[in-house]
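User: Please fill in residues for this 345-position structure.
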């Protein structure tokens, strides 16, 4: 049952109590829907072509030498690993080359995968929503990063864990955003607290109170997109955070920054700016499927290591999943059946 509450905070007749929320929509039959591992591999194919295409031509050579390492450096930079992570990886490979007496290019590729995994492993820290009721998650990011659609996917993700979820339509700036959230709410059978126009902080404040009254487990609070350079909007989102703390002094319990992977290295500046304004506690990296810049995960790990809670590789409702370092690196280096051009080039 879907409920759309006005500013009064009073549920409309027919709103289902939290404990009678209908089950989430059935997933497509397993046979027709590729697994997450397959979708992750497919989603990372552009980065892999950037990285793997470069690597396979490099690793096609028999012998490891300084020229090969220099070309590898260029390949890593092109995949948006950033100077810091690339330098670190090259240092590590040189060390392993000597220490482990690596000879073949295959061995070097294996060493690269291991070194990359070591870099990104600290980002793996799946979000636990225990310990607070409701557990309040504030979502922030620049325009179009994927905040609202990620909220829809997260709603389903938490529901699948048996949690009740309430969405707060705090993007009061973009007219269509509320409707978008309402649509996601309908799909996931969760209540959306919204109001016509007005103040984001007030909507979210009401949503937290409604969630508390209904004993909802998780509140997902949307906010309008904004650029870090729009100082008045950064001040506004800082106020939203303060108001959440008024509604629940222990909250927000998670401040998620949504980043579009297409922006590559600019992600670092966004993390720093939003962290300064609202204290980011976790990251969501969307649209990895549309970019060759997946190496940005390594850059984030080296330069602003916030927990990477979720990664997104598509528009499907289950195309956003917790980040797992081993899975990510395996997908980056694995050949995809039917798309072996990158691996065999
Ligand atoms: N391919 C792909 N598209 C995505 C992914 N995540 C989000 N999108 C798309 O990105 C577009 C923008 O997403 P929104 O959720 O509207 O972005 P937003 O951050 O809420 O936007 P504003 O409200 O304008 O700030 C939509 O078309 C989404 O379907 C992803 O992982 N892969």
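Assistant: Residues filled in for all 345 positions:
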């Amino acid at each position: 049952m879907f409920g759309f509450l006005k500013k009064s905070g009073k549920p409309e007749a027919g709103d289902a109590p939290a404990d009678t929320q209908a089950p989430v929509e059935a997933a497509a039959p397993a046979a027709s829907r590729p697994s997450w591992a397959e979708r992750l591999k497919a989603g990372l194919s552009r980065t892999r072509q950037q990285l793997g295409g470069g690597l396979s031509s490099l690793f096609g050579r028999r012998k490891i030498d300084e020229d090969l390492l220099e070309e590898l450096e260029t390949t890593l930079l092109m995949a948006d690993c950033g100077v810091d992570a690339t330098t670190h990886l090259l240092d590590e490979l040189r060390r392993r080359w000597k220490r482990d007496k690596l000879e073949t290019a295959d061995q070097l590729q294996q060493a690269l995968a291991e070194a990359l995994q070591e870099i990104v492993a600290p980002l793996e820290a799946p979000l636990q929503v225990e310990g607070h009721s409701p557990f309040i998650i504030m979502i922030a990011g620049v325009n179009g990063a994927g905040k609202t659609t990620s909220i829809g996917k997260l709603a389903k993700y938490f529901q699948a864990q048996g949690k009740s979820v309430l969405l707060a339509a705090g993007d009061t700036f973009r007219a269509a955003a509320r409707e978008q959230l309402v649509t996601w709410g309908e799909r996931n059978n969760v209540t959306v607290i919204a109001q016509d126009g007005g103040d984001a902080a007030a909507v979210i404040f009401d949503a937290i109170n409604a969630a508390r009254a209904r004993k909802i487990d998780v509140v997902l609070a949307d906010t309008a997109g904004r650029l870090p350079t729009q100082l008045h909007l950064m001040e506004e989102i800082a106020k939203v955070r303060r108001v959440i703390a008024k509604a629940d002094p222990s909250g927000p319990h998670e401040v998620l920054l949504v980043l579009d992977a297409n922006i590559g290295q600019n992600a670092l500046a966004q993390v720093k700016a939003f962290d300064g304004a609202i204290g980011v506690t976790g990251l969501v990296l969307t649209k990895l499927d549309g970019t060759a810049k997946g190496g940005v995960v390594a850059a984030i790990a080296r330069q602003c290591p916030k927990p990477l809670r979720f990664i997104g590789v598509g528009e499907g409702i289950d195309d956003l999943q917790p980040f797992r370092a081993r899975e990510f690196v395996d997908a980056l280096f694995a050949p995809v059946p039917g798309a072996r051009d990158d691996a065999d080039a």
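For context: Residues 141, 143-149, 171, 174, 177, 225, 286-287, 289-290, 312-315, 319 surround guanosine-5'-triphosphate (CB under 6 Å).
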